[in-house]
Amino acid sequence: MSAAMTFGSDNHAGMAPEVLTALAEANVGHASGYGDDRWTEQAENLLGNAFGDAAFALCLTGTGSNVVALSLALRGWESVLTAKGAHIDLDEAGAPEHIIGSKLETIATPDGRLTPELLDAALRAREQHHVVQRVVSITQSTECGTAYTPAAVQAIADWAHAHELLLHVDGARLCNAAATNRCGLGEVAPGADLISFGLTKNGAMGAEIVVAINPSLRAPIQNARKQATQLQSKMRFVAAQVTALLTDDRWLNHATHANAMALRLADGIGNAAGVSIIHPVEANAVFAVLPAARISALAEKHHFYIWDAPTNLARLMTAWDTSPAEVDQLVADIVAG
Amino acid sequence: MSAAMTFGSDNHAGMAPEVLTALAEANVGHASGYGDDRWTEQAENLLGNAFGDAAFALCLTGTGSNVVALSLALRGWESVLTAKGAHIDLDEAGAPEHIIGSKLETIATPDGRLTPELLDAALRAREQHHVVQRVVSITQSTECGTAYTPAAVQAIADWAHAHELLLHVDGARLCNAAATNRCGLGEVAPGADLISFGLTKNGAMGAEIVVAINPSLRAPIQNARKQATQLQSKMRFVAAQVTALLTDDRWLNHATHANAMALRLADGIGNAAGVSIIHPVEANAVFAVLPAARISALAEKHHFYIWDAPTNLARLMTAWDTSPAEVDQLVADIVAG
Amino acid sequence: MSAAMTFGSDNHAGMAPEVLTALAEANVGHASGYGDDRWTEQAENLLGNAFGDAAFALCLTGTGSNVVALSLALRGWESVLTAKGAHIDLDEAGAPEHIIGSKLETIATPDGRLTPELLDAALRAREQHHVVQRVVSITQSTECGTAYTPAAVQAIADWAHAHELLLHVDGARLCNAAATNRCGLGEVAPGADLISFGLTKNGAMGAEIVVAINPSLRAPIQNARKQATQLQSKMRFVAAQVTALLTDDRWLNHATHANAMALRLADGIGNAAGVSIIHPVEANAVFAVLPAARISALAEKHHFYIWDAPTNLARLMTAWDTSPAEVDQLVADIVAG
Amino acid sequence: MSAAMTFGSDNHAGMAPEVLTALAEANVGHASGYGDDRWTEQAENLLGNAFGDAAFALCLTGTGSNVVALSLALRGWESVLTAKGAHIDLDEAGAPEHIIGSKLETIATPDGRLTPELLDAALRAREQHHVVQRVVSITQSTECGTAYTPAAVQAIADWAHAHELLLHVDGARLCNAAATNRCGLGEVAPGADLISFGLTKNGAMGAEIVVAINPSLRAPIQNARKQATQLQSKMRFVAAQVTALLTDDRWLNHATHANAMALRLADGIGNAAGVSIIHPVEANAVFAVLPAARISALAEKHHFYIWDAPTNLARLMTAWDTSPAEVDQLVADIVAG
What we know:
The structure is a homotetramer.
Chain A: E1 2-3, H1 17-26, E2 30-31, H2 38-51, E3 55-59, H3 62-73, E4 78-83, H4 87-90, H5 95-100, E5 104-107, H6 116-122, E6 132-139, H7 150-162, E7 166-171, H8 174-181, E8 194-198, E9 208-212, H9 221-227, H10 236-246, H11 250-269, E10 276-277, E11 285-289, H12 295-302, E12 305-308, E13 313-317, H13 324-336
Parallel strand pairs in A: 4-5, 4-6, 6-7, 7-8
Antiparallel strand pairs in A: 3-9, 8-9, 10-11, 11-13, 12-13
Helix pairs in contact in A: 1-10, 2-10, 8-11, 11-13
């Protein structure tokens, strides 16, 4: 499928114009490979401005950056506590278990968000028969389109640290969470030891960054990236994408726009007959039960996924380039009845 | 370092113009992610034309495509026979052993090339204490700048198959080998079961393709790619690079040019005082011992790597965009004395 | 703790007398290592009598035999469906994920038993983002002290095979299940492709056997065992244990006795005030809620585990050497009130 | 094969009498599993007397104890430097690479012994493309029947620590090395951070102990052992073997005897026609080139391995129970001509 616009995923969108421009501008002459270039230096400076003191590793895919980040924290006999259905649990083809060799322990959640209470119930005494629970991994914003408040993230970080665990944040959509919380990238995951910071869904071609905040986890970040197959030789082209989006708050404009389009959509259909919105709309996704008789036709026309067929649940995603007119057309088609 | 031109590596070069153009042309509207798009279909058709009947998986890095390819062939208790110093042995931070869990057994070679005789000497009887030797992996063209003839590859394939092993070809520079051998991509690694076909060094931004030729190895190629973190969401941008370079024999023009520049360089310095060329120049690299007194200054000016400092051995690499004038300047500086 | 007798675990019991005798009898002169000896040949003959045509690998621990068995069936991107809380999920310190590199997907069950219906609900469409579901692993008898009927196992095998999955049976207590079902070892897990057959809990010192029934899974069994660290050099001493217990139906006598002691215990306390038995008693374990005020004192005196403290749930296990008098004393102490 | 006596391997020997006695004595009543018993406490006390302050984990196989020990020291992107042909390299079916996920880098040696000079030549600068060299693993005594002096071990330990590496000692035959060096178990591998201490070849049925000396490596030893499948439930029977051999210097008597038998053999055949002894005889193995015309018949009669057929090299091993008469018969048969 390729179409004007779709509501299938924020990765159906292409590159933001400034990203393409940055690729063209970086394509001049020769540059050393593997990050020893001025584009990477510039990107890391901007990341430092955003996240503060940390080690950074530019990666290529979200699965890749999650694996690299988690590998910095885990020994083979240690485990990760995460929400059932989190990207690392369901949508990475088992890469975390396979590459890192560590068990994932999943916790059912109502809306993708873990809480200290849910974690308390999953905590086990440490003994030799069991894996050692070592990392809590949350997604900010979540796979359900919800976002943690910074205070909620801090509460999980405090819980983790009090129990000798570390906090990893899968931030494939960290920008959307920051826009929702009206705060900076460095403030939307307070207390995190590791962040997988994604820009691909924000308008990059493919740029995901491991942010190692906890000083004890930083040293092997380059070796871990290389071993996880995530080191691009012509790194300047990844770095240029990062710089393009972190300059002049473009990441924030894109995320704010995508979030606004999701709210516009939710507002438009929330009271329609046969429609019910499942989760709070706090990022760029709307999970909505749609009328059974029309959901298939709607999905075909507007290119969205039927998330759970038996319950007629659809996932409607907006992106940095979703237009109000397209949202309004989708609303009209849903409401039309 | 970023400079006009360098002799450090073929990945110091940027994108060929047609690749950048292709990225821009692919950046229109929305497209489904993960390969379900018309650009991927087009790229796979061109790959099919080049390699014949096979399964393809577009990947992002050379290490990634090697890991994906080898993972299709290996169980945990099986091993890979490869040349000592091959990329999978030395320059992938242990990714093959770590991600696949299989042992690499290395064989010393004079010039990067394995032979049936060298393999015979490494063959072991099968018994329970040992890994089961399962894959021979060769690099075409090699890390030493040499290339196998198709007949030499076929001889290794025959050896492998006669001993119940499979043949993997690391083709990060397969284009250069094909240009040298004046044959097509599908003819330069005859008998191979798996090829990692690289275009990054040929002018792409980052595009490496796993080619699964042996029918028994094809089925899980997509899951293996995803698990190895190599599945890009906005796949059309990888596919567009492949199409750009496989169209109108651009890959061949780039490789032929790079090879010619290496020969021009070798011809220019081969008879100079204090210079000796180590390996046959059959691709786009010249390994040359340079005068001890001047090697450092030359390396600094022309941005090449001193490969082995004690012996004053330099690696001089050319790329798709290396100009004759630059080669001539390097020759002049070396010969100058 | 070391005590006359306990209800803590069937592995608190020592060796059955015939096992010790067999060790002594095997301790004569020299024998080739690693299974090339007449004791191993004899043990494998007896295993063949019990299980029919299959490949066997004598191992040392239950976790070891589970890892070896599962490794025969799984590629890295494939997963195992198993009951939440199964030994491979909870009590093997993540060995399956770590050593095999494959994801475990757990399914909540009421009493440790999976069913085709539960499996149906866990089945996913195959696509590249997900692991490929490949093995169903059940425990016979279960960690809850329940046992599958042969028909129930066959139904799961049929389900698995109909969906292109394989069936693995963790038979750490297969003997108890066979005794309960009044059938042979080869009849208590019909349709299984792989069985981890345990004798340690049946009176061995340490002997667990991988049974590879599916012909397509047999070839690498010895390499898989060695790589999983489970190959003992002085194999005759493992084999002698197997022979001791498989001769003259000793395994059956031990299991029948242990099961009878569990039933005697359940019968004794089933109607006592404040006591409720949680799962059907179909093997050698009784899961019983005990009076809150006395459970700690009882656990201390009789050496059993409080399985779930908040609900006063105890696990009471019997072994091949549990005496009726000890059971009666435990019953008396529980009933005494 | 099972025979009166053989020269095939020290693991062809059975249990020393005191080991069998200890198994019988430990077989009384119930005991808690997994090491929470008085036999394990006693064994660990004796190990503490021998090795000083350390953490201990009783294991079942040599491959198992090597994997557990190395896993304590290594992250995935770190490597092991070891002698080519070391047990971990050749005879563990790839278990270290597979289970730990770390690369082994092998170094050719004349007689199984590494030296600081050999290690210097293998040392690489640290950078992101390579594995981080982290552990040196030596075998004491070696697979060639040679032994390091304590000073030689200390020199390697010093080299390792000076380069931020750790020292692991594969001590499957540590007892033989201690006997040769006339020192205690705690003195024969000075500076080691980790020791795999074997008793199986010394007269145990199967008992191998991980000794974690470096305090920073001790904490996860129990989880690492469990995850590597090496935790026996009925641990008292492993512990009893350890105690039996560490009591009254029985380990030393066994090793001294085996070493003496090897020397007796070497002395007997060293000057015979057509015989040449390859390595210094410093433990319980003699590597000897034997007359081509008779080597096969000798091997068949005396059950030893032809180590390298093209060169008529035999490995002749003695054990705790090898008798002088048997040695003399072997000598006579070799010398007879």
